[in-house]
Amino acid sequence: MGLDGDGADVTALEALCATQRIAFVFLTPHHQFPTTVSLHPDRRLKVIELARRYGFAILEDDYDHEFHFESQPLLPMASYAPESVIYVGSLSKLAIPALRLGYVVAPAAVIEALAHHVSIVDGMGNIVTEEAVGALIEEGELRRHARKAARLYAERRDAFALALTEEFGSSITFIPPKGGLAFWLRFADTTILDRIERNAAALALRFAGSDSYKARPEAPRGLRIGFASMNAEKTRHALRLLKQASRLP
User: Fold this and answer.
1) Edge-to-edge strands of the sheet including 172-173?
2) What is the rounded distance in angstroms from the CA atom of residue 241 to the CA atom of residue 183?
3) What gap in Å lies between CA 76 and CA 105, rounded to an integer?
4) How far is 181 from 178, CA to CA, in rounded Å?
5) Which of 104, 107, 210, 218 has the least CB density, counted as fewest CB within 10 Å?
């Protein structure tokens, strides 16, 4: 599927469904990865309608639902079509990266099948960590943490946007994300992007290369740059290094 400012191209999805059998569709509708675009409500409803008509499942990866800065986040697609959606999320974004726990909300038959598979590949599990996280959820600590983190990340997002504009001016384009923990940067002159990627390692900059986001050779290139872990001082330092990389041969 293609992508525009309203998210995935559901017209293309409908055309695809008419010509071949689709088993499931993977979406990151809240903040699309990597571009951070949110799937428009009308398109969400259209995908659900197509799932019911053609009998495919929707795999909804809602990895950073808690971090939405400008309004109340849209409800997950699973809220409207629990029979058609397998909803997955992660605690590593909400809490700490080292907390490698995820969760699934799905029809009972899917949960039973997943539980059986997990029992085969990971019989021991991580019961202590799971129970500790369960206690944090029940006691409301995780919800309180999410509210505090969202306020902090909103401030860091604004500082990152300002620093980007001041350091790079019109050589890059971006839309400040309404939520999530990263920016999607586009370059009018792709040679700037080439220089950044060529020189990043020498300046101790680490990020996924632009080609890693391309599902098709002709897809536009960009960089997904995280901002949430950096205060204003670290943000300035990192972006100055990025600018330095763009000017090296």
Assistant:
1) 172-173, 182-187, 223-226
2) 17
3) 11
4) 10
5) 218
